[in-house]
Amino acid sequence: MKPDTDQLLAYIERTVERTLTACTGCGKCFDVCPMTRYSDLLPGRPGGEVVAGVLDILRGKAGTPAAVEWTRLCTQSALCIPVCPEKIDPMLMLRLSRITALGSTGAQPLLPNPRRDPEFFRRINAFAKLQLSEAELDEWQR
Ligand code: SF4
Fold first, then answer.
1. For ligand 1, is residue 52 a contact (CB within 6 Å)?
2. Which of 23, 57, 80, 87 to mutate to test the pocket of ligand 1 (most atoms within 8 A of CB)?
3. Where exactly are the structural domains of the chain?
4. Which protein residue has the closest C-alpha to ligand 1 atom 6?
5. What radius of gyration, in Å, describes the C-alpha atoms of the chain?
6. pLDDT, the chain, mean
7. The pLDDT of residue 120
8. Residue nearest to atom 7 of ligand 1 (CA)
9. In sequence order, what are the residues at sequence separation of 6 or more whose Cβ sits closer than 8 angstroms to the Cβ of residue 128?
10. Residues 21-51 pLDDT 10s
11. Cβ(56)–Cβ(112) under 8 Å?
């Protein structure tokens, strides 16, 4: 089935809404992230504070420098997924934060877009970039 851009954007909106509602800001996802040590900005930061900035990015706001940095650094280790007590997929949360920070959902860009194409994620290859799981695909196709 050919992905439909409107359906994909609706899926993104639903997932963002669910994350904003369910996340308690406990910071456990940040605490297990293996990438934070590679930043000058992130080590020692309270996880809840950084996650709060990520949630702000998902709301289309500026977030915080630490939240933008964590968004930028994510390499999708997936170590964050099993530790979330709210059954959120924090890796997906960060992927959506990245999409938003690139300005691809219409928000003010916070990260340089390597393709200099504001429509990049509105194109069909956005589907591949999201790397949806089977469960996510099922939900997206509803
Ligand atoms: S572990 Fe889950 S609930 Fe806790 S801050 Fe991360 S996403 Fe939010």
1. no
2. 23
3. 5-137
4. 29
5. 14
6. 85
7. 52
8. 90
9. none
10. 999 999 999 999 999 999 999 999 999 999 9
11. no
